Each structure stands twice: as structure tokens, then as C-alpha cells.
From TrEMBL:
Protein's UniProt keywords contain Repeat: no
Keyword Glycoprotein attributed: no
Protein name per UniProt: Hydrolase
Species this chain originates from: Streptomyces phaeofaciens
Classification via Pfam families: Polysacc_deac_1 (PF01522)
Chain ranges of the NodB homology domain: 71-253
Length: 257
């Protein structure tokens, strides 16, 4: 998600205790090319953050393009899962036959594993969005960045029942060369965005829709949120944007890997 006022993000108070955990990573879960089938064994707490045979490195560059080509768009949903808003977002996506990429905060995934499994079962993809949504990640030590990325990877994988995140999106876009390299070594393509819908600011449904329509020429990856407050405007905006995209000849896909 875009930076929202700086600081350590709106999850900071809620997950202060999580920041003290040791660096952990997903171990021997089955790597899936599409987050549609849950398989493999869940990683064990305390597994070391080292490469394993089922993890294949991906490109370290920040992905923006869509696997649907020139007329493709990527719907990305940040900061959840949330017990109120994620189910509503899933309902809208299902209504219009759209698959999306859910960029999940580790503590949220850990708190709501049922929702993580629903996201996977619906054919959507998972993205690591750090443990605590610290938008100052690019100013933190490498050890801290590792903890945030690898612990979130573990939390999301465990919550999903064994499906690993395929991407890593830095909170607020606060990537570093180190965090990109680390994520890519764990099979998570760094993920950017081209169109910030500004839905996090709750400017009104009309404003969210207008922002997307105006800025879509900037590129195919669209940023929305399903947590962090009242997301009713986001739900209604998606209900208008998704059919509009189809009318304009766009197809919804996934970010390239």
C-alpha cells in the first residue's frame, strides 16, 4: 500500500509484541504455481530461514506488468485479511469472475486463517506484506527486514494450510535492494503498483472510481485495501470498476513472475 502518514504503520500498536519474534521462514511446504490448490506440509515453527529444494528464486526487479499482456490488469488487495471486509471483497470478485492478489499482513493472516484459506480456495494469489506493516522498512536494519519478511512468509503459509506467498510487497513501497533480494530468493517476486486508488483515505466511492479511470494509463497493477478501517467504499468501488474494466476490453490477471 502507499505510505500513509509515515511512521510504523497502523498495525504498530496492535502487533508490538510480534516484532520481538526470531527470524523464521516457511520450510517444507509444497510450492504451487497458482494459489488454487492447498498442498504439502505446513512449516514448523522455528524452521530456519534457509533455501530448500521446493523454493525457486525469482527475479529481484519490482513487478508491475500483467500476465494477461497489454490489455491485462492486476487487482491487488492490501493489509488484510479482515473478518468484515475481506469476505465482501471476495463476494464482489466472485460475482465478476475476477482473480486478485491479496497482500496480507502476517499478524492478520495468523489471526484469521479461515479467511486466508478462503482466498486460496477461490483461486486468488497470496503476497507477503510483512509482519506489522512498518512503512519505514527501508530505514531499518537488514536483520529487522529479514524478520518482517520471513516471519510473515511463515505466518501466511501456515494460515493457508501450506500455500506460500508468491510475491512480496513492501509496506508503503519501502523496498530496499536487500529486501528485494531476500524475497526473490524465497520465491516471492517484489510487487509494486501503478495505480493507487487512494481508497485508504476513504475519499468517497466516486472519487476512488474516478482515480482508477484517470490513472489506468499509468500501468496495469491497481492497489486497493480490505483492512485498516471501514472499507465499504472500496467494496462499492470494485463493484463499479470491475465491470467497467471488462467493458473497456481489459482482462484481469496476475502480476508477472
Amino acid at each position: 500500500m502507499a505510505r500513509h502518514g509515515g511512521g510504523r504503520g497502523w498495525y504498530g500498536k496492535m502487533v508490538g509484541a510480534a516484532l520481538g519474534v526470531t527470524v523464521l521462514a516457511a520450510g517444507a511446504s509444497v510450492w504451487t504455481a497458482q494459489a488454487g490448490a492447498v498442498g504439502g506440509s505446513s512449516p514448523q515453527a522455528g524452521a530456519s530461514a534457509k533455501p530448500s529444494d521446493d523454493v525457486k528464486a525469482v527475479a529481484v526487479t519490482i513487478a508491475h506488468a500483467s500476465d494477461k499482456g497489454a490489455r491485462g490488469v492486476n487487482i491487488t488487495i492490501d493489509d488484510g485479511p479482515d473478518p468484515v471486509w475481506t469476505p465482501q471483497v471476495l463476494d464482489v470478485l466472485r460475482e465478476y469472475g475476477v482473480k486478485a492478489t491479496f497482500c496480507m499482513v502476517g499478524t492478520q493472516a495468523q489471526a484469521h486463517p479461515d479467511l486466508v484459506k478462503k482466498v486460496v480456495a477461490a483461486g486468488h494469489r497470496l503476497c507477503d506484506h510483512s509482519v506489522s506493516h512498518d512503512t519505514t522498512m527501508d530505514k531499518q536494519s537488514q536483520a529487522y527486514q529479514s524478520q518482517q519478511i520471513l516471519d510473515a512468509e511463515r505466518m501466511i503459509t501456515e494460515a493457508s494450510g501450506g500455500v506460500r506467498p508468491m510475491y512480496y510487497r513492501a509496506p508503503g513501497g519501502a523496498f530496499t535492494p536487500y529486501s528485494r533480494k531476500l524475497a526473490a530468493s524465497r520465491g516471492m517476486r517484489p510487487l509494486g503498483w501503478n495505480v493507487d486508488s487512494k481508497d485508504f483515505e476513504r475519499p468517497g466511492t466516486d472519487a476512488i472510481v474516478a482515480t482508477v479511470e484517470r490513472e489506468l494509463p499509468n500501468g496495469p497493477t491497481l492497489l486497493f485495501h480490505d483492512a485498516g478501517g471501514d472499507r465499504s467504499q472500496t467494496v462499492e468501488a470494485l463493484r463499479r470498476i470491475l465491470p467497467w474494466l471488462k467493458e473497456q476490453g481489459y482482462s484481469c490477471g496476475f502480476p508477472v513472475r
